[in-house]
Amino acid sequence: MSQNEISNYVRTAEDVKKVIEHAKLSENDLKPNVQPIYFGEKFENYKLLQLDEHILADLKCGQTVVFKGDHKESAVLCTKSKTYDVKEAETSNSILLLPELTFPDEEFNNMELTSRKVVGIFHTYLEVKPCKPRLTKLRYLLKNCSYKGSELEKEVLETSEMYTFEHLSAKVQASDNELKDALKEMGAFQIDGNWRVLDFEYECRALSFLLNLIDEQSWPYNTIPMDETLNILGELLPPVILQHIIDQYSTWCVSSNLSQTHRSLIEDKVCRFMAVGLLRPCDKFNLSDFKTAWQGSVPEGL
Amino acid sequence: MILVKLIEDDNGLGSLPEWAAVEVQGELETRRHTPLERQYVGDLFATIHDGVPILIIGHHILYGKAQTFEKPFAVMKKKSDADEYVVEAIVTKKLLFKNRPKPIIACHSDDL
């Protein structure tokens, strides 16, 4: 096997004939196209990434997929809509990678030798498994820059980091679609392009303004005139916050003559928020007392 | 955040060439542990009848079979100038030689 050590050794038809003989094979049983395999001049620093059909389809239509995670996090791979856990898997076999190779079932009518080149040998690959988006960090990041009212906003802007969608997408281990869903679910909104949530106490205050107004004016909770509401509350809340509270806790009326002018409170959202507001400050709350307080905290009819 | 993109051809369109894999048991090494680059490995044959791939490496003969990977692989390379991997090819098929190689007993083995 001394020839093996010569790096520019090239197989000849003679060599191949000899090897067939030695191996006690019959040339008549073998396809005429023989493929001598060589290692390439240089092994590129390739990595193998295991794909599922979704990732493959996304790549094929030109979409970018992204590895996300900082040094303290284990990496995930995100497509536009899914998140995958990434782990390095080992195999005791050697996987040789060849850009060109004719498989036994492929037609190939070359009677000559066809040299094939190995461009890399692998014992590991990156394995992917679908997983849930990791959203704890998102809640933490947004809580740290929550909106606490116009009087405190200057200080918050000076001391806290602000996040655009791109910033969040880079930091949070979730796909963009999952991130959008999570922001919606959290009731996050944008101020000057940055994603924010309302500080809990502040949200309590802002929502109370709306609920109190409905009480004072004796409006039915499902027919709230928007013009008046915006006029009156516009003096108490910045426009972007007022709009957010209205979007979060009400919808346009269904009946056609009111559908542009009047809104209706979203019952379960309002009630749930007020319940949390009542329960949050205390360890225990007698059930009947709680029910009375809860009822009192929301407009009549809810 | 590291992006993974498809390699672009001259028209700027993403294309995905298909590469092949040959999977063998254990490790490949040269007798004197010289680097593998540029070395000759062995000859790959296929039988006419049932298309069994046969790989002869040195004094060993390996019988294998063609298989499709359960999940395909992307072959990617990190860009030197950016936090970005470029997918250069996809691998869906392999020739698997999972059995132990059989020694070839020959009188003129020195010629191999």
Automatic annotation (TrEMBL), chain A:
GO terms for biological process: DNA replication; maintenance of mitotic sister chromatid cohesion. Keywords: DNA replication. PANTHER family: SISTER CHROMATID COHESION PROTEIN DCC1, SISTER CHROMATID COHESION PROTEIN DCC1-RELATED. The keyword Cytoplasm does not apply. This is Sister chromatid cohesion protein DCC1. GO terms for cellular component: chromatin; chromosome, centromeric region; Ctf18 RFC-like complex. InterPro entries: Dcc1. Belongs to the DCC1 family.
UniProtKB/TrEMBL annotation, chain B:
GO terms for biological process: DNA replication; mitotic sister chromatid cohesion. The keyword Transport does not apply. One of its GO terms (cellular component) is Ctf18 RFC-like complex. InterPro entries: Ctf8. Keywords: Cell cycle, DNA replication, DNA-binding, Nucleus. It is found in: Nucleus. Its main location: nucleus. Belongs to the CTF8 family. PANTHER family: CHROMOSOME TRANSMISSION FIDELITY FACTOR 8, CTF8, CHROMOSOME TRANSMISSION FIDELITY FACTOR 8 HOMOLOG (S. CEREVISIAE). This is Chromosome transmission fidelity protein 8.
